[in-house]
Fold each of these.
Amino acid sequence: MSPWQVSRRRLFGLAGAGAALAGAGAATGYGLSAAAGPGTGVIAFRGERQAGIVTPAQDRMHFVALDLTGTDRGAVGDLLRRWTLAAERMTAGLETADGDAVPANRYVAPADTGEALGLSAASLTLTFGVGPALFDKLGITDRRPAPLAELPRFQGDRLDPARSGGDLCIQACADDPQVAVHAVRNLVREGFGVTEVRWSQLGFGRTASTSTAQATPRNLFGFKDGTNNLKAEEPELLDEHVWVGAEGPDWLRGGTYLVARRIRMHIETWDRSNLDEQQQIIGRDKGEGAPLTGTGEFDPADLSATGPDGPVIADDSHVRLASAQENGGVRLLRRGYNFVDGSDGRGHLDAGLFFVAFVRDPQSRFVPMQRTLARSDALSEYLEHTGSAVFAVPPGLADGDDHWGRALLA
């Protein structure tokens, strides 16, 4: 029998993975094949890179930032080991631990909270990162890389401390929101006594494509978002712009940095703007998503083109100011999501973009771009940045007993 025995979740109808996965599991010896891919609903947890970065972006996300409640490095290391075991099981469509999800003894708390029983793995990925303050708390400041520093305050920021920062982060992405929420809920539960939630964010409707097989999605302003995003099928560009190289410490080489920004969009004001104004602000047409100098979505934007009134793509347009041409060739791998968090009590929706980007160096690459956008982007009139965080995301895990944070805390 495999160390990962058939779970009650499978017995309750894990139809998404199906009998084919059970057969694949027999070949690998621990439940589900590491080679399982598109069409199975299972994405390999271990590998050279953490899943959830260049993985084709799923439809839903639950992101959580946590703080350490103590300074015991051993306790943190033990938690990360337990988190890894639970994460690997959940991404395979299993409960967080072996045993009955509904115990026979009704006076025993179930090991798994149970809301994902009967659901497939839904392409769940779990991505782990560490924040700047963790190194001070654990007395390992000599291991903190220079780029891992809190982001500066940008012009117009209205950051809520309760929605910013964090010692650790977990990004759960899936094609079923309940699967993503279940994963975060159970990891948070496992961390009781060692970590506590600082903030979290639910997202829907991805706002970027991370694979050439995906169509470009739209944000809540109704425009296609992330047309020129880096893709999984561009390994050389990923090496240049996303993955940390020899400049990073041993524990981070092959990993990356995650930048998170909660951006409230004043959609009611935007919705009263006429179409021409909206398109001039963005620099693209709203229907096809083409730059104002082209006819197709993927036509290159001609930033030098001029018309009777000046540049065809305005100097303060979002497309121009966010372009690689205007930022020294810098590019980011975007992986954001839309959000609607109720209303603000004044008749306006608290809605917007939860911006997530992966980048090789946030200080030299993201910060200059964001400073330019905050200062000059016409779109800024309709945006309000309310949360901010940065995390270092280590590389993937090797087979065996390798676990999150092992190389960092060794």
Amino acid sequence: MKSMTLYQKLAWSLVLIFSLLCALVLNWSKQLEQSSVHHAQQNLHLQLAEHLVHDNPLIQQGVYDYKALENLFHTLMILGPAFEFYFVDPEGHLLTYSAKPGQVVRQQINLSPIQQLLDNPTATPIYGDDPRSNDGVKIFSTAPVYNQQQLQGYLYVIIGGQAYDTTLKNIKANDNLWLAAMWFVAALVALFIAMLLLFRFFTLPLKKLNKELNKIEAANYSLTKMSLDSSYTADDEIGNLSKGVNAMLARIDEQFQSLQQADKQRRELLTHLSHDLRTPLSSLHGFLEVINKPDSHLNVPEQRHYLNLAMDNCQQLKHLIEQIFELANLECGQVKIQSETFNLGELIYDCVAKLALTAQSAGISLRVIPEICDFTVTADIAKLERVLTNLIENAIRHTPSGGEIAVKVSQQSDQLYVAVSDTGVGIHEDELNAIFEPHYQARNSIKRGSTGLGLAICKQLLTLMDSEINVSSTLGKGSEFRFNLAMQAPA
């Protein structure tokens, strides 16, 4: 079964509450009206019974002839059909009355209301037993009847008797009263319709928002296919809800796009890894297979040559795996910085000395500018050495024989700028931002054992040290990689 909408729930709730309130108001107004009428009538006829007792000799001298008294009551009812007359003894038993035979169903009444009205006439309305009903009550007028100062009973006059009720009921059925009731009902219906329209107006933004969310859900929460309508921008609860849903969906879409990009990068990384690992493994397998052939008839120098090639491929494979793990740790945030204060010039000369033989064998000269490089910095010395080594090795790989590599240090305010420049092949302008991506290699790069991970590792390490690396290059003339370090203030 389909569940009700918010508007339907509010509408039905309004119907139930409205109906209950109408019933309560009508019942309360009816009771209030009846109480007011009874109060007025009882006050108006409060001394009726007393006047009848004092003005009628038959009652004033004591009642002995109940038949004559019955005829008197009958005569009085003809003159006042809205009244019913009863004479009761001091115990509440009905002695005589004005009703026809069979109309009186109660032969004794409770005297407590009579005594209450006699003691406190201002406490109206006070209701006494209706002899014509087993459980009904009516307003009344009463007076005690004495004979030689001895209580004979009470004259008990019902105000608004059965004849009165019948006549009043017929009057209420009059067309004018029905017309008034119809106008009252029409006013209530108009109010009800107005309330429904107000509920409709208040819940319409929620309905629109729900409709838009259903469309987003149908589009698999992709904002590229469907965008949320943010036309409702009122500064209220629904407006804030709409803005919050917009922000939440934008954030979900951003994370979804990020996950898609991460998945794409993961697939590309696996592709690059399989390719990078396959090359040295295939070479290593080939050289070992040549050496292991029983009919190869290789002499000792040839065997040593193939073993050296196999060792080179093992070393390249080891280096590649180490870089892969290093980059993975950096991207996962598992690498911590351990800062210390040291001399930057000494570190640069150590890195240059470590790679001097490699540069010399490639016909490339290495130098430090300025030669006296005496600067003190606070950083992670091991990671900074890794950055300088990667940048110098990268420059050696992309610089042809006869070229030059320079490590330059300059000071600007409280910052030191370290630059590694070369006179190599340079980088295309459209590739300057892409070279820091893992496994990316420029189109014109000279591959000398490159894995394509060195620059990516450099960028991650410098980011951890709150530094930024930039590159400038001229195609065919060389490149320069530059990063900043905070200079240690002199003691």
Amino acid sequence: MSISAANRPRPGRRRIHARSYGAPSSVLSLLLLFISMLASTLAYEMEVDALVYESSYFQELAVRGEIHIDMTEPPLIRDIHIQRRQDSVVPTSVSEATSTWDSSAASTSSTTSSSSSAAATSLAIATDTSTTVSPTAVSTSISPSVTVVTTPLPSPFDTSIGSNFTVSSCPTFFSTFLSNSTFQSCVPVSLLLQNSNSFFRAERSTTLLTQTLDSACNAPLAICSPLMANLASELIADANCGADYKLQNPLVSQAYAGLLAYEPLYRATCLQDSTSGAYCFAEAVTNTTNDADAYPYYTALGLNMPAGASPTCSQCLKDTMSIFAGYAQATNQPLASTYLGCAAQVDVACGSGFAATDIKVGSVKKSAATRKGYGSISASGGAAALLALLFVFDDTFDHVLGY
């Protein structure tokens, strides 16, 4: 029996009923939790310049759909070399400290000259190194230690002896005795007064001047005095500077006077004020109220005191004039030609008898005449006695002194 297609029974449709599952809901919850954790991890704070991004000008450009292009030149990119700071390095000399100061100044100048186009970015270059330079010490804040640079003592003829000499043996003689350590240890103030630029600078500082006088007054007079007398004799010898001395070469004449006047100026400049304990010479040259206080010391070198000069009438002046009065009696001392004039001026200012004027200048031949209380060292002492003293001298002095 055939059944037509129209009468064929339709197959029954399956109806799928939705069931509720718990798994998809749990997965969705875990996914949302993971996203929130990831978002909190990647979140960061962004600062936006409101003046740039929220200004009315840029809002207008956004409405019109236009793009603003900055056509100005881009800022220059400077090469910045970064070096690790050496905290353990401390300047050991004035030149090193000066180099540090110069490099710091250069970096500061470079920072200040930055273009105005980089005004939105502030670059601060700071250094914690501060260096102070002084005539005698260098201090730095890098290390708690302080490096002290000792200032050398003043020396005579420290600028240049020049070339104005008749014979080449004369400047050679100067170089020989000036470089000798024994001569240098004597610190001859008599040669420093007229021919030392470093001593002139030291006179501006009481501290430096006192240090110089301390060294000069600690020098052994028994060695230095005959040494200077011998150098004076050798200086004007024909084999050395005799020709220039006869022509009155100023450098040679001043050196000769300074060598002869070593002992009287040694005693005078080493006098100390009984009240203050300071050196009388230091008080005289640093007295800004009366420049004449220093003039009597220069008379020991053969220089006359300026007319009308009136030094301060102190005990220091009285004692100094007493020393000079004794040495003025020697024929070979420059004081023989200058003392009486100086004493007369001092007496006018300080009263009659303040300085001795009844002495016979130049009356003692070739000897260092002395006042009561001072020893005497003959400038023409025997060769044996002088040779005994020369054992402590350097070998470089052998040919200078002729032994």
Amino acid sequence: MKHTPQKSAGPAVDVLVIGGGNAALCAALMAREAGASVLLLESAPREWRGGNSMHVRNLRCMHDEPQDVLIDAYPEEEFWQDLLKVTGGLTDEHLARLVIRHSSGCRPWMRRHGVHFQPPLSGALHVARTNAFFMGGGKALVNAYYRSAQDLGVEVRYDSAVERLELDKGRFVAAITASGERIAARACVMACGGFESNIPWQREAWGQNERGEWPAENFLIRGTRFNQGVLLKFMLEAGADRIGDPTQAHCVAIDARAPLYDGGICTRIDCVSLGLVVNRDAQRFYDEGEDFWPKRYAIWGRLVAQQPGQVAYSVIDQKAIGRFMPPVFDGTKADTLEELAALLGLEPAAFVKTVHDYNAACRVGTFDHTALDDCHTEGLTPAKTHWALPLDTPPFYGYPLRPGITFTYLGMKVDETAAVRFDGLASPNLFVAGEMMAGNVLGKGYTAGVGMSIGTAFGRIAGVGAARACGYTHPEFEEEMSEVSHAAAH
């Protein structure tokens, strides 16, 4: 094998941050605020900077009373129960509650770095109480953080993918880039994403199913093409303690016509709970009305991944129009069920029977798509437990679905310090944040905005930890985290 000569990086920096999204930027800003010199390496070119954070829209926030852009209250215990439900208990409660408590107080800091929030939204997501939305979305948030980083003197390099680290018994020494450059630093924060964009790794993780299919070959990537998981794989092979199942991910049912990469939020199909979903055999396979869409939308990608051909179809009638966020692609429209089936490539008789069986099972009470209403089915498997209205009002609409991977949950195990661990021992100067450790909180499932909660909390914690490893302190954050830790202990 030919070895590329390593080039000197010049004087060592205090804190090296690897990654360019929300968690990395939070770490870089916090370390710089503490007084450390900071170099941030982003693998993408400048125009694609920000990783998956470009596509985010909001932050899930705990609050005990109305706060600026958040209405009513969303107390810790309700947030925790929401997280517990979607993860099925596959979460570290201590770290989850740390994230939840941190979410209650991070917005003033975000505002100081140029992030703006918009007034509560109305519409299909029903999250004005639980989530704070960014003015201008994730792209505006990322741009604000980069501007603030520049103003504070953080050095940023684009097109700078890191392939491996130089380690000494768990201590970070230097990073080696794809070009062979060796960059030494006194401490390091890794926040460069999961392996969602690495289709061969996805294929290996998911394997072959009983039908002889390789499901991952039909996956679409909702976010950045640059999250290849190169450094994650290196760290796991280097012996970092791991967390998470490689097949678990933020996996959403998105429009099958979406691009392979970077489709973002507009490719999501949000009418699932207002109609029914069938696979390519025209059979239903899950309760479309199990819970509010923001709590359950991220289970549907995995459900579709388990269906033949990794494809499904969300079907509604005219009554649903105006009650959900319209997707970027128009639905297939037809005046009869038989015509819709033919247009979608479904066997008409099987599809019509599925719809008629569903219609006959509907027990319509008081329909309310903003509440867990009493419209449900009886004698139908699987049941539809809420919002069950017959599909009987043409025109009918169908949307093809594919699994859309946002980010993967396989990562590195951490504690409340965000330090990477080797055989249970914390590294003194190597930290991790964002997707690379989100599996500690998200063993499976997802609820809207919690990825940003995790990235913001652990990005800030990791940045302060890295600065502390270099001899710097951040008194304001130390006080904030002391209060959070005290609350967590009780």
